[in-house]
Specification:
By secondary structure, the protein is α/β, with parallel strands linked by helices. The chain is built from 14 helices and 17 strands. Bound molecules: zinc ion. Zinc ion binds next to loops. The site of zinc ion (ZN) has 5 residues, from loops.
């Protein structure tokens, strides 16, 4: 299965490349045979949005442990967010993450910060990071608040042929909020942040894209009106793309009723109407990709009271199964949202996201779309345990993951 459609075939791999796709290739090579009976062989999944926490927060995750989660989840590539310590805002830190990624169980593509230290007041050296292969820039964790600086960043990014990605949140408007502002925040007495805090920045950046002609990618959109604005910006012909996370199409603000910080995330879980709009956006193309926003936090951090705990939840091991289980889409449509569409946005379609064809790098995942399994937080390959899906039974499982010809996951087990 790839962007070109589906066919029944064997896939022959030699070294790090696919050398043939066709009938009866079993036994053609000298190596091992991996059984994909009853499964879908697809390009490896691509995550536009993972927090691997290294450097700086290795107690929560490392590039190695995060990449193992990714491989188990069917990913062969992840874009690592730059909100590390130090932030990925210079060639030196880009190189450090790239070096750590060389032995990982998936390809790790660092994103770069838009502003120095992600502080929002001075442009980071985008050109020197772009020269090292960085294709996506974001201050994720924060949005760039200053409209004039964002305009300059967009003009600069256009010239470098890189893409800016925005975590849309108006700081002043959502200051002090710990969940979605609405019926549930009132009932629970937890200060909320309104949908408008996200929507104002989506609206502004669509306007800046119109003004500059620059591409903009919206991260983890969570509200009905955000999805509608992106849909109409696309209809207008603007160079706008957007992602949504599994938690924003599977959970609502009512999950916060027990004050369990595992449900605290940024942007916050929204209402049932918003969930329905995110699902509709994924179905009709308003949203281009599913991204995990995999955000590991230690048990100590997540065991604090709701208003003190950091936002974020794990995502790499459950994204595919949540999409197959919860979205009313075909397997091919789900894989498109998780593989070849995000590969294009990340600027890595030459090596990830298919097609499954001779000559291409052998970055593949083998999915059993009908297998069911139950999420066990303690069994996660992450250093952290903050998944809100513990005990949930899901349909669709990754059986094997092949990275540059190497089987890194076989029969659901990481090989190293
Ligand atoms: Zn974010």
């Amino acid at each position: 299965m790839d962007a070109g459609g589906e066919r029944r075939a064997d896939v022959l791999i030699d070294g790090d490349r696919i050398t043939a796709v066709g009938p009866d290739l079993d036994g053609q090579g000298p190596g091992r045979t991996i059984d994909a009976g009853g499964c879908v062989v697809a390009p490896g999944l691509v995550d536009l949005h993972a927090h691997l926490r290294e450097p700086g927060r290795e107690e929560a995750e490392t590039i190695e442990s995060g990449s193992r989660c990714a491989a188990l989840g069917g990913y062969t590539a992840v874009v690592a967010m730059p909100n590390t310590t130090p932030a990925i805002d210079s060639a030196g830190v880009v190189r450090e993450v790239q070096d750590l990624g060389r032995t990982a169980l998936c390809d790790v593509f660092p994103s770069g910060a838009i502003t120095v230290g992600r502080r929002g007041d001075q442009l980071a050296p985008l050109a020197e990071m772009a020269a090292l292969g960085v294709r996506l820039f974001t201050d994720d964790g924060c949005g760039v608040q200053d409209s004039r600086l964002m305009r300059r960043a967009m003009e600069y990014a256009s010239g470098l042929a890189v893409t800016l990605a925005q975590h849309c949140e108006d700081d002043a408007l959502c200051g002090g909020g710990h969940m979605h502002e609405g019926e549930w925040s009132s009932r629970l007495g937890i200060p909320g942040q309104p949908s408008e805090a996200e929507e104002l920045m989506v609206m502004r950046d669509i306007a800046l894209s119109r003004l500059t002609g620059a591409r903009i990618h919206f991260q983890h959109l969570s509200t009905r009106r955000s999805v509608a604005m992106v849909r109409s910006a696309k209809a207008e012909g603007l160079a706008v793309t957007a992602e949504a996370t599994p938690h924003h199409f599977t959970l609502t603000d009512s999950c916060c009723a027990g004050y369990d910080p595992v449900f605290k995330v940024n942007p916050p879980l929204r209402t049932g109407t918003d969930v329905a709009a995110v699902k509709a956006g994924l179905a009709d193309g308003a949203l281009d990709a599913i991204a995990t926003d995999h955000a590991p936090h230690t048990q100590e951090a997540k065991e604090q009271p709701f208003d003190e705990a950091p936002p974020g939840m794990l995502g790499l091991e459950t994204a595919l199964a949540l999409a197959l289980t919860e979205l009313d889409l075909s397997v091919a449509d789900v894989v498109a949202l998780l593989s070849w569409r995000p590969a294009v946005i990340a600027g890595i379609a030459g090596s990830h996201g298919g097609p499954v064809a001779a000559g291409r790098p052998a970055n593949l995942c083998v999915i059993d779309p009908t297998a069911t399994w139950t999420v066990v937080p303690a069994a996660s390959a992450s250093r952290s345990r903050n998944t809100p899906y513990g005990g949930r039974t899901l349909t669709g499982r990754v059986r094997h993951t092949i990275l540059k010809g190497e089987p890194v996951v076989v029969d659901g087990e990481a090989q190293r």
